[in-house]
Amino acid sequence: MDDSNCQIYEDEIQSLEEEIKLLTEKYEDKQQESTFFSDEEILMSIKSLQEEFQGESKGHESPLDLKAQLESLETDLSFLMKFTGIQFRSHSKKTVERTGNRTVQKHRLSGNCHSLSFQLEFHLLEMQSAESVSAVVTDLHIVMASAEDSDITKFVSRAEERGSLLTFFRSLSTYAEWYEHRRRTFLHFK
């Protein structure tokens, strides 16, 4: 066997080993996430989901009702995306910590707002009391594609300090809309 064929096979083996390593890490993450729940909690969740599903299926008369409701939600989502200019490409959620009345989840979001792309990573701390559930965003980290603009850098820094997702998305929507107008105007004059 010549050296070029041998190198091709070695590269393929290395690629497969890396893929196995990634899949093993994903599997271990899923295993770790599932160990946060006791058998009793899992059984109670399954039972409550079954009861909830049975209650919902009694409330809906036919699959046509569900289809109409889905179409209505899709219409609302489409309207919001056109109105704000924000489109999400991906979202992942991982439970980091779970205790009696406290849950910490790590979220990752990526998307576009008009022509600006963004990525968010944050922890969501949920505290449950007898009366209510409160959620607080912590460790907010934002990455913007156009980080060379000093205005967006200042804005992103303030949003990260305050940990306010609502403020970030509101401001991003307005900024990205005007950013797009400025870009078109400069293209017009070139």
TrEMBL record:
Keywords: Coiled coil. GO terms for cellular component: chromosome, centromeric region; nucleus. It comes from the Eukaryota. GO terms for biological process: CENP-A containing chromatin assembly. Residues 6-33 form a coiled coil. The keyword Repeat does not apply. This is CENPP protein. It comes from Rostratula benghalensis. The gene is Cenpp.
